Each structure stands twice: as structure tokens, then as C-alpha cells.
What we know:
mainly alpha; Lysozyme; 3-stranded antiparallel beta sheet
Amino acid sequence: xxxxxxxxxxxxxxxxxxxxxxxxxxxxxxxxxxxxxxxxxxxxxxxxxxxxxxxxxxxxxxxxxxxxxxxxxxxxxxxxxxxxxxxxxxxxxxxxxxxxxxxxxxxxxxxxxxxxxxxxxxxxxxxxxxxxxxxxxxxxxxxxxxxxxxxxxxxxxxxxxxxxxxxxxxxxxxxxxx
Length: 178
């Protein structure tokens, strides 16, 4: 699911949050992510320069190694922040969500609070709202959240409220025709 939603890139690029990224959604410079998603913070992110030694074609082996380390780090983080009984599918959905939103976002989130209370429906309803980058709803993030929520409930019946939200039309602005 990670490679499907993140994509795999062998040359550095800026993600939708204006962060330098490589491989499967690996943020190259964590200090760049410390700037908030405000207009001023986004300007600072965009002004952040790619290091000359990183401006190259990365090998598949390098990208695979980075991804394996990242997944391991996010699995440890989710296990630490959610010390509750989750099925493998629920855990995998939370790792994917955290990989995209960040472990700090998980730690502060009402998604985590609801899961710790045992309220999986409330958690997924909030979970589905994490689909903005740079203050704008992004269609790809909406699709990703819906896929993650479907994975979360793949071993049980999807609650009606969550199913309705998954089936709802996109809130992302329509693409302009050229």
C-alpha cells in the first residue's frame, strides 16, 4: 500500500507539502518538516535547498534500504503509541497513515485518543479527515485515507458511518481544464 500511494521516485522531488522527498515518500531533511503548513512555513519549506550530493539518481537498492528502515521505524512508533490490541490489518493501516502524516501527528491526534478509548469508529471517522497538504484537500490523500480505512476494517464489517464517509464524493477542488 505504501508504494502504491506514495509512488517510487529515484530522483529527489518536492511532495505536496513542499518537502524534499526520495524513494517511497522518504522525507530527506526532517528539519524542513519543522516549518508549519502556514503560508510563511510553506514559503520556508520551498526556500529549503536540495543538497548538491543528494541531487542525483538514487539506485533501487538505496531506495529499498531507506524504505525498510522507514517502515521499521514507523512500525515501532505505532506499536509504542498504540499499546492496544490491534489486528494485523488495523496495525498496517495505522502504519500507512503514520508513514504519511507522521508519528508526531499520530501522537497528538484524536485518532490515537479514540483508539486508546477503544472507539474504532470515531477513530476512523477522524482518520478520514486527514487529507490536506498545504491547507488544501488533496484528492490522492482522500483516496489513500479511504483505502487505509477499508484495510483497517477488512477483517470486520465496516460500520455504516465509516462506509458512508468512504463512499462520499471527493472534497478536493476539481482540476482545471487546460
